[in-house]
Amino acid sequence: RARDLRHFSSLILGRTIGCAHYIGGNLYRGYDGEAGEIGHVTLDINGPRCPCGKNGCLDMFAGGRALQASAKAAGLACKNMSDLEALAAVGNTTAMTVLRNGAQALGLAVANLIQINNPECVLFADLEGFGKGIFQATTRQVIENNIIPRLLASIELVFHQVEPSFLARAAASIAAQQYLRTG
Asked: How far apart are CA 110 and CA 94, in angstroms?
């Protein structure tokens, strides 16, 4: 989806939130290979404890695992995000609230990412099955409402559903690209 772009960020919307940054056509790994840990950006220092040991990480608000837990705690019977989106689509206000809260957290984190990295595109790879529902619409709206207006005209936000094999294919393409560059 972003093969021809030189500056983009790719977010994985899965059980947790992952991210990779391509800057100048190259995968940016950071000093010791840990760049892209957007799921562990702190959104609320008093928020829920994350398995990483910190409190209030993005994963604890917007990751599929956290949204599933919020839905269950609210008494919703959902096996996956498609079920949660389906409930929201028929007017279940509890499902809408769960999805909007997660999407607001994701949107704010991505708005900050856009202002820091200034990518051409942010590509959202949906592994959880959100589809084109409330989560996607709210995420997009929060991003658009929270970035510098001049950046809004130059950023492309692309949401697409991917298969579980996407992660393995992405890793393989990075290895192949590295091999072709270095021989």
From this structure: 24
d(CA 109, CA 112): 5
- Burial 37-61, CB ≥16 within 10 A → b, else e: ebbbbebeeebeebeeeeebbbbbb
Of 179, 106, 180, 91, the C-alpha closest to 136 is 106
Q: What is the pLDDT of residues 124-164, one digit of tens each?
A: 999 988 889 999 999 999 999 999 999 998 999 999 987 76
Residues with Cβ within 8 Å of 51's Cβ and at least 6 positions away in sequence, in order, are: none
Q: What is the pLDDT of residue 74?
A: 96
165-170 contacts, C-beta under 8 A, 24 or more apart: 166/125, 166/127, 167/12, 167/127, 170/10, 170/20
Edge-to-edge strand order for the sheet containing 26-28? Answer: 26-28, 17-23, 8-13, 121-126, 156-161
d(C-alpha 123, C-alpha 7), whole Å: 11
Asked if 18 contacts 39 with a C-beta cutoff of 8 angstroms, the reply is yes
Task: Provide the whole-model pTM.
Answer: 0.88
Extract the tokens encoding 142: 């929060």
